[in-house]
Structures are given as structure tokens and as C-alpha cells.
Amino acid sequence: MTSAIRTIDLHKTYSSAAGDVHAVNGITLEVQEGEFFGLLGPNGAGKSTAIGMLTTRIIPTKGEAYVGGIDVVKHPAQAKRQLGVVTQTNTLDRSLTVAENLEFHGRFFGLSVRESKVLARELLERFQLDDRADSMASDLSGGMAQRLMIARALAHRPYVLFLDEPTSGIDPQSRINLWEMLRDLHKDGQSILLTTHYMEEADELCERVAIIDDGRVLADDSPAELKRAIGADTVITVTFDADASRIVHEVEAAAGVRRVEHDGASLRVFSTAPAGLLGRIVSLGTAAGLQVRDATSMLPSLETVFLTLTGREYRE
Amino acid sequence: MTTTMTVARPTMGSEMSLIARTLIALLARDLRVIRREFGSFIIRLIMQPLLFVFVFAYVLPKIGAGLGGAPSGAAAATGLTFSTILVPGLIAVSVNFQGVQAVALPLVRDFSYSKEIEDRVLAPVPVWVVGLGKILSGALQAIFAAFIVLPIVVSVHAPGQAPQLQPNWLAFVVVLIFASTLMSSLGLLLGTVIDPNKINLLFSVVILPITFLGCVYYPWAALGTIPWLQALVCLNPLVYVSEGLRWALTPQLGHMPVWAVSLALVGGSIVFTLLSLRTFTRRVVT
Question: Cβ of B285 under 8 Å from any chain A Cβ?
Fold first, then answer.
């Protein structure tokens, strides 16, 4: 089977007066056909440079990259057939209408005028943009503009859809709509590579996630597996109205508790089996004459994984 | 390699035909945009030459101001009007303006914030094809500009100040084709090397000196009295456009030798096209 994406020891080094900057420092990845893959990392981790190399815009300093089996460095023109790109910023042609954006995209890929018109109509319907067909692209809202960019990126039936930070700077409703749309595309078998610096986005959408930092892959697995392998816990934090030291030992002894951190009136409880635990902690406190002021429960997240891997706080 | 090709490698012929279709689509896109904004496109094109001939070929002769009334050298000797000098000059300015600005300005905007070019450079053709599309589009717009401006600069003048043309239309078209290509490839070059933050300088540092020292308002031969300037302006591409158009429209006025004009226009078109496609590709693929 052809892999959707394959990179071998990919490097990109930028030379500057201050010395060489290794934006991407040896990334080896393989994304399967139909897979929803995420590149997760903080800003400046090398995600955009990596996507730039895969989409023929940046020439690697070293290494190989294939999309749909085509060498993107040696055969960029053919490789461009294989990839659909949704960039972070709006790149729609604002001098054209919504429909024309799709039509001319089709024609840039060699379709005839008639074929591209048919294609545009189909895409407008599929992406629920048909009532805006004749609006100028400059008049679209952020969410709609993004939908049009996705429609355009898929117009030539690319092997892989690349999305670079698709949800940075869009409103929460558009983000939910986008997630739904991407899940549907994935269900239809579309291979997708998404970069994000939002932990929950990678967690929510991706079948497999590569965590990258400083141009290197730190871990590459399913979100669940990443969390399990690192031994991440659910963290329950309970704040009482007075010092909670008197119940620390009882909480530590409760079933499913791995570790308790005590800080004045607050207890932070790490657990691998958190079912019913919050209630248990609250009743232990009540029995000891403590009133609950605040309680939160945080599920194991990729954030905890990142923290464990890099030893430092995740900066978005 | 464990992976296999999923698409057949295109043949040479199909690759060329895809490039041609993409080029046509790029031109069709520009045409669509121009058609939509045709009014402002035309106004942008004719205002400068129209005002220029109005003031210099109508107002000044009417109020008896001497400027242009008594051109030096060959023109004065043969009793030619200033408008005769202006016709090829102002057409040259329009070709320069349309060719350079129509390509350079949108490109600078593209690279700095609009990023509209992103979709085009992802078309399945080599990146230089998109640059070539820009040159062709700019050149066609410049040729169109010349034909719009020609009747205006010929017909606006004070009584008795009509320009005296002895046109060779074939030469006119040939000069226009190369002049337009030269200017639009210069536009692509400028658009790809200029720092977007310094775009405001394009007008004062490039367009203005090129125009005022482009043998637009005076023939090159007349600069014989200022030899250092006559030599210096040979670096200015607009000089060859003006002089080429003088050869085609007002040969009786005298002009730079045809071999020099041809060499500069043809050679310049080729050199600037190759150079600008290179800078364009380097700007897009890093």
C-alpha cells in the first residue's frame, strides 16, 4: 500500500547572522492512506516548515519527502496534484466571486471551462456555499472563507489534505463546524495532515499524533496510547474552606488514588481510576468538618504528555 | 523505495499542454478581474496622458507659454510641434506605467499580506509558469493601454498644434510587443525583489526617474548638447521604448539607431524575462 506521506530524515536549516537555525531537524514520519494525522507542537516547533516542505514550497536542506508516492523535491509539479493545502491565512482570490475561486482553481489544474463550472457547482453544494456563489470572496465571514478554502483544496481530489493551524483565530462555533467537516471527510477516506498547537484539537480529531518540538519528533502514536504510555492521570483538584491536611492520609488511602499533593486548603489528587472519586473526597472532607469551595476534574491530556516529554510547560 | 507511483508520469506533450492551459487560465482570471473593474481600469490608464496633452499641447500653446513651443535641435529646424514629440513619448509612458505597475504592485501586495498567489503557485506546473502568466498579462495590458492612449494623444491639442505622424504600423506593433514584454518583466523583477515595506519608494525612486529621464518629453538626439546625460539615460529601458515608438510613428523627427533600439528591446525582454522568472521562483520556493 502507498503511504499518504513519507518523510525520511527531513531537515531544513536556515542560515542567519546569528548562526544556523535548525527549523526542522531530522523528521521521519509515515502517514497511512486514509489516516487523520496531527503534527502537534508549540509555535516555532517546526510544524509550518515541515508542511512547507511537504507542499513543495520549501526545499529541504537534507532528506526525502513523498506525498502519495511522489517525490516532492524531485517532481514538485506532479506532487502538487497530490496535495490540497489549506493555509493559516486567507488566500482566497478576493477579486473573484466564491464560484469563480473554485472555477479558476479547476482551470489552473487543466480542466476545461465547462468542467470547472460543473466542479464548482458540485463543491458549492457539498460545502453549503451555493447561496453565496456570486458573492465576492472578500465578503465572506472567517468561517465561510475557510470552508471555501477547504472546498478549493479538495477540488482536484488530492491524495492528502494539509491543514496548517486551521482553528487559530476562528470563532468557537466555526471551530466546531470545522471539526465536524473534517471528521466527515476522514470518514469518506480522505487522508488528512493537520498541524495545531491546540492539544485538545489533536486529541479530539487525530488518529495519530506526532508531538514535535525544536524541529524533532518527540513521540508519534495515537493520543490514547501516548497518554497511556506516559502514565498520565486524571487530576482532581478540590479546594476547601480551611486547611485540608487532616484528610490527606484518608484521601491517599482511597481506592484508585496514586498520589496526593497538598497545598493549604487545596488537594490535588492524581488518579488512574477516577470513577466516583470526587464524591468520596468531598464526603471525607465533610466528615472532617470541611466545606468544599471549588472542585475540578481534569482528564489526562496531551498537555500532560508534552509536559512529561519536554519537562517544561506547554506554551501555546 | 517501498512506495509506488499512483499516477502515471505525464509525457512531455501532456506536460506542455497542461502548462499552456494553466497559462490561459491565469490570463483568463486577470481578464475577468479587469472586466469587472473596467471603468477604473480605463480611468487609471488615460488620466495621466490625457492631462499631459491637455496642458502641454492645448493649454500652454493657447496661453502662449513657450514651453514645448520651441523644441531644440532637429525638431525646431523642421518646425515640428511639441505634440509630435509627445505622442510616442506618452505612449511609451503608458506602456511603462501599465507594464510595470500592473505586475509589480499586485505582486508586492500578494507577497506581503493578500497571499492570493498561494493557490496559483500550487497549480501542478513549474512555479515559473505562474510568473510567465504575470508577464504575459502585464504585456497584454500594456499593449491595450498603448492603443487606448494613441487616439487621445493624437487628438487633444490646440488649433495648429496637431502632431505630425508618419506612422509605420507594422513597426509600431512590433515595437509595442517587445516594449510591453520588457516593461512587464521589469515589473515582475521589481515586484519580486522589492521589500513590501518599501513599496512607496517604487514611485519616487523607480517610476519617476525612469519617466522624466526616459526621452519622453524630448528626443534622445536632442540630448546631444548634454553628452553625459545622453550617455547616462542609455541605462534607462524607457528610452528605447520612446525611441522605438519615434521610429515607428515620427521617423522624420530623428531617433536612436534602429539596431540599438532593437537590441535593447529584444535583448532586454529576454534578459529581464529570464531574470525575473528566476527571482520569482526564488521568492516563492524557499
Answer: yes
Task: Kindly report, residue by residue over A96-145, the tens digit of the pLDDT.
Answer: 999 999 999 999 998 999 999 999 999 999 888 999 989 999 998 888 89
Is B9 at the interface with chain A, CB within 8 A?
A: yes
Tell me the CA end-to-end span of chain A in Å, nearest whole number: 36
Q: How far is CA B258 from CA B224, B237, B248, in A?
A: 18, 15, 10
- Do the chains contact at B10 and A78, CB–CB below 8 Å? yes
Global pTM reads 0.82
Residues A271 and A277 sit within 8 Å (Cβ to Cβ): yes
CB contact under 8 A, B122 and A85: yes
Distance CA A256, CA B10 (A): 62
Q: Vertex A232, ends A229 and A233: CA angle to 5°?
A: 140
**Side by side, which strands form the sheet with A160-164?**
A83-86, A160-164, A191-196, A36-40, A208-213, A216-221
C-alpha to C-alpha distance for B85 and B266, rounded to whole angstroms: 24
- Cβ distance B122 to A87 less than 8 Å, yes or no, reads no
Identify the bridge partners of residue A194 per DSSP, sorted by sequence position: A38, A163
Cell digits for A9? 530524515
- What are the domain boundaries of chain B? 81-144+165-285
Rounded Cα distance between B32 and A96, Å, is 8
| Residue B8 touches partner A, C-beta closer than 8 Å | no
Q: What is the DSSP letter of B111?
A: I
CA of B16: which chain A residue's CA is closest? A110
When CB atoms are compared, the residue of A76, A87, A94 closest to B118 is A87
CB pairs under 8 A between A and B: 102
